[in-house]
Design goal:
The complex is a heterodimer of chains A (about 160) and B (about 400). In chain A, about 25% of the residues lie in helices and about 30% in strands. Chain A is built from five helices and eleven strands, in the order H-H-E-E-E-H-H-E-E-E-E-E-E-E-E-H. In chain A, the strands form three sheets. Chain A has a four-stranded antiparallel sheet with strand order 2-3-5-4, with no helix packed on it. Chain A has a four-stranded antiparallel sheet with strand order 6-7-8-9, with no helix packed on it. A three-stranded antiparallel sheet of chain A has the order 1-11-10. The radius of gyration of chain A is 21 Å and the shape is elongated. Chain A starts with a helix and ends in a 5-residue tail after the last helix. Chain B has about 400 residues and is mainly alpha-helical. Chain B folds into two domains: about 20-295, Cytochrome Bc1 Complex, Chain C (Up-down Bundle), CATH 1.20.810.10; about 300-404, Helix Hairpins (Orthogonal Bundle), CATH 1.10.287. Helices cover about 65% and strands about 0% of the residues of chain B. Chain B is globular. The termini of chain B are far apart. Classes of the chains: A alpha+beta (about 160), B mainly alpha (about 400). The interface between A and B is medium-sized, with 28 and 37 residues.
Chain lengths: ~160, ~400
């Protein structure tokens, strides 16, 4: 009798917990509003543009020819090439705890004011505490525009080779 | 149906139905408190009163607050602060009490550590007290979200990111906690619910457990003396109050308790009326903006020490150190291997440990407020390492301690 009572109560408890878990999930409307289109042709070299995608800031940085020339292979592999120009596209949140790093034009790099982390112009972490490079959001290139939130072939290639998380 | 005599007075009528005389005897008239104590023994009552102040001021704020990302900021900074009669008073009382309550909690904790009041039957008092500390921390954090200023938003962002567990990258959990990719409407609503309902209910329940855990072992005294409460109580009840080592909780001890509370309230209302600024971060008077991080993010003063243990390390090690700092105080009754429940100054190496821990926490607190650069980074790192080292050596030095 006790076991039967326990079993029924247990099923009820699991059901209730499942419902509670689902009630805290992001709403469908929140998940659906997730695409941003950016026109890359208006960018100025070495000037950071911040777009908004899913409530997060997205860094878009057109690199100068000198910056591209000075890059190593690892840095170039993270470049998004649109109309022959090299761009950094990355979620502008420090991979440590999510503050927004500031771009320093003279140093060609990012500094996070919260805990002192640094990234280069390709979003690669160069000073702790951030443990990994800035995340590259899903993107799809069409002509000179980029759609954020949709995975194009260039993004899928980066994702597969482990360049971005 | 049980048999009830016709009651001759209201007291008797209530006693028949609620046993109020028994309750009064067990909880007040014959709840014995040692005489050999000092003002630090009143901190529990100070905390209870401060919690009451938070509850009452919170009720008045709740009547005008709007848990909506578009309205929250103005409902606090315009409606409550400028339109509602004495709304500013409730807000300043609430903010100052939320800050000061942690000062008293820390004093209360370190009083317990100094006098060894977590041993020999008092373990559950310590553990329920630490649970209260965690619940108050969650209450403070969730309340800090509500004005929806820049510090609210970014503290919410940083703290919820902790749940991605570093390199495990559990972003699904973070999004689940927020109900969105970033702190937004769902996030504000659920933290509002936690702040005004679930956590306060948990705090009330924990206060019940905390008081209950105290009733059988009784409060400690200044010399850690083991008192035979039955014998001392007999002396007191026989009228020999001078020879007895104990007094009754009510009204004897309560009158002293409330005197300390009165002194505290003078200090408290001085802060509320003339020096409330420390509890109102200027950055939080900018509305939340997900695209601009404040130049320098820091928590309220009472979280700075654990924040500074997170900060100087790389992400994963920092998280482990932070988690260590959050739980380690719970284990104090078990990591202290010495049977001596006496003041720290009579416990040899433990006395040094006590003051080293206190100073280390103050250093961590100071460094946590400063920007993470140069010498401050280094001092913070050393202080964080000292914190961890102190806990590692605690079982060893207390094992070696001479039994008194």
């Amino acid at each position: 009798m006790g076991k039967a009572f326990g079993a029924v109560a247990g099923v009820g408890a699991v059901g209730a917990l499942y419902a509670m878990k689902k009630s805290w999930d992001p709403l469908p409307s929140v998940k659906a509003a997730g695409f941003t289109t950016v026109d890359m042709s208006v960018c100025t070299p070495n000037k950071l543009i911040v777009e908004k995608w899913r409530g997060k800031p997205i860094f878009i940085l057109k690199k100068t020819a000198e910056m591209v020339a000075a890059q190593n292979e690892e840095q170039t592999a993270r470049d998004v090439i649109v109309g022959g120009e090299h761009f950094l596209i990355a979620v502008g949140l420090c991979t440590h705890l999510g503050c927004i790093p500031a771009y320093r034009e003279n140093e060609h790099g990012f500094l996070c004011a919260c805990h002192g982390g640094e990234f280069d112009a390709s979003g690669i972490d160069t000073k702790a505490p951030p443990p990994s490079p800035l995340v590259i959001p899903p993107f799809k290139i069409t002509g000179t525009t980029v759609v954020l939130g949709e995975a194009g072939p260039e993004y899928s290639k980066m994702k597969e080779s482990g360049i971005t998380a | 149906m049980a048999h009830f005599e016709k009651a001759k007075s209201l007291n008797e009528w209530l006693d028949q139905r609620l046993a109020i005389n028994t309750l009064n005897r067990v909880l007040a008239k014959e709840y014995w408190i040692p005489k050999d104590i000092n003002f630090l023994w009143a901190m529990g009552m100070v905390l209870a009163i401060t919690f009451g102040i938070l509850l009452v001021s919170g009720i008045f704020l709740l009547m005008y607050y709007q848990p909506n990302v578009d309205l929250a900021f103005d409902s606090v900074n315009f409606t409550i602060m400028q339109e509602v009669g004495y709304g500013w008073l409730w807000r300043h009382v609430h903010a100052v009490a939320a800050s000061v309550v942690f000062l008293i909690i820390y004093i209360h904790m370190f009083t317990g550590i100094y006098y060894g009041s977590y041993k020999k039957g008092r373990e559950l008092i310590w553990i329920s007290g630490m649970l209260l500390f965690v619940a108050f921390s969650a209450e403070a954090f969730s309340g800090y979200m509500l004005p929806w200023g820049q510090m609210s938003y970014w503290a919410g962002m940083v703290i919820t990111n902790l749940f991605s567990m570093g390199s495990l990258e559990l972003n699904g959990i973070v999004e689940w906690i927020r109900g969105d990719y970033v702190p937004a409407q769902a996030f504000l609503d659920r933290f509002f619910m936690l702040h005004v309902l679930l956590i306060p209910v948990a705090i009330l329940a924990l206060i019940g457990v905390h008081f209950g855990a105290l009733r059988l072992p009784h409060v400690n005294n200044q010399n850690g003396e083991e008192i035979d409460f039955a014998v001392e109580a007999e002396k007191y009840k026989a009228g020999n109050k001078a020879a007895s080592k104990v007094i009754a909780f009510a009204n004897d001890f309560m009158s002293k308790d409330l005197f300390v509370v009165a002194v505290f309230l003078v200090f408290f209302f001085y802060l509320v009326f003339w020096n409330y600024g420390f509890a109102m971060d200027p950055v939080n008077f900018d509305p939340a903006d997900g695209l601009v991080t404040p130049a320098h993010i820091y928590p309220e003063w009472y979280f700075l020490w654990s924040y500074e243990i997170l900060r100087p390390f790389s992400k994963d090690i920092g998280l482990v150190a932070f988690a260590f700092a959050q739980v380690i105080f719970f284990l104090l009754p078990f990591l202290d291997r010495s049977p001596n429940a006496v003041p720290a100054n009579r416990r040899g190496l433990f006395s040094i440990w006590f003051w080293a821990m206190l100073v280390d926490l103050i250093v961590l607190t100071a460094m946590g407020k400063l920007p993470p650069e140069g010498i401050y980074s280094t001092i913070g790192l050393v202080a964080a390492l000292v914190f961890i080292a102190l806990w590692i050596i605690l079982p060893i030095i207390t094992k070696l301690e001479k039994k008194l």
